[in-house]
Amino acid sequence: xxxxxxxxxxxxxxxxxxxxxxxxxxxxxxxxxxxxxxxxxxxxxxxxxxxxxxxxxxxxxxxxxxxxxxxxxxxxxxxxxxxxxxxxxxxxxxxxxxxxxxxxxxxxxxxxxxxxxxxxxxxxxxxxxxxxxxxxxx
Length: 138
Hints:
Structural class: alpha+beta
């Protein structure tokens, strides 16, 4: 099946709260996640909310990755969308989960841009059960 790209919607729970409110730290993690997945970074925009929380996007030659954090809940909503055979959004997803100290990761993979016979495009969704990511000592 030929697709235009793979989009991973990722729910990260049990993340380190101190990391989720550190805009510079979150930005560095997301940029490194992009590099680890073999993506080319074009532009980076991140914002820290008051009193807490970070939102940001890393625009890639291959599409984008984005993050929105809720430090008070230890939660991060992260999207990894890449196209082309030379990038692997799963590598970026697992890298970010590990670096943010997530204890669980729930993902949905969407294969996007599948051409149909009538000239329209569609997608296919694959849900993945949550899994433990990292162990932290209290």
